[in-house]
Write a structure and sequence with these properties.
GO terms for molecular function: DNA binding. This is Homeobox protein B1a. Keywords: Homeobox. By secondary structure, this protein is an all-alpha fold. 90% of the residues lie in helices and 0% in strands. It has 1 helix and no strands. The chain starts with a helix and ends with a helix.
Length: 20
């Protein structure tokens, strides 16, 4: 679960960067 949460956080950050 922890790893998955990290993956989600990374994806979210990447998405935010892409949006910006």
């Amino acid at each position: 679960t922890r790893a998955r949460r990290v993956e989600i956080a990374a994806t979210l950050e990447l998405n935010e960067t892409q949006v910006k």
